[in-house]
Amino acid sequence: MTVTGEPIVCAQPGPPKSGEITLSRPRNVDHEFVEWVTTSSQKPRPGETRQNICLAVLDANKNAAIRFQPGNARGSEWSCPDLPASDTRVTVERVTIVYRSITVV
């Protein structure tokens, strides 16, 4: 209540909401990362494949400009287009990661 007796309307705290991050990157041979994403997206049991991870945005000199630390993260989706043998373009894979909390470092 205000000094004049009027009610104050404000948002009440609730359960934390999860978020998601979509990464696009050139396809490489990092089998461990792809395996974690596919395994955790197929078996989303609590605590089974969730991990605290760190994502770094690099500057032109390949130094970390900013770091994001999603907590309790798991892979949600992974996709990579087919690459015909005659194609010489770079293949870009897309990875969606869902998380429960995030810290910016």
Give an overview of the whole structure:
- The chain has a domain at 28-82 and 91-104.
- It has one helix spanning 31-42; strands at 19-26, 55-58, 64-71, 74-79, 92-99, 101-104.
- The model has no long low-confidence stretch (mean pLDDT 81).
- It has one helix and six strands.
- A three-stranded antiparallel β-sheet has the order 1-5-4. A three-stranded antiparallel β-sheet has the order 2-3-6, with no helix packed on it.
- It is mainly beta.
- Helix content is 11%, strand content 36%.
Any chance you could write out the topology, listing elements then pairs?
Blueprint lengths: L18 E8 L4 H12 L12 E4 L5 E8 L2 E6 L12 E8 L1 E4 L1
Antiparallel strand pairs: 1-5, 2-3, 3-6, 4-5
- Helical stretch tally: 1
Q: For the CA atoms, what is the radius of gyration?
A: 20 Å
N-to-C span: 38 Å
Low-confidence stretches: none
What percentage of residues falls in helices of 4 or more residues?
A: 10-25%
Across the major sheet, the strand order is: 1-5-4
Order of helices and strands: EHEEEEE
Structural class: mainly beta
| Count of strand segments | 6
What is the 3D form? elongated
* Main sheet overview: 3 strands, antiparallel
Beta-strand share of residues: 35-45%
Mean pLDDT equals 81
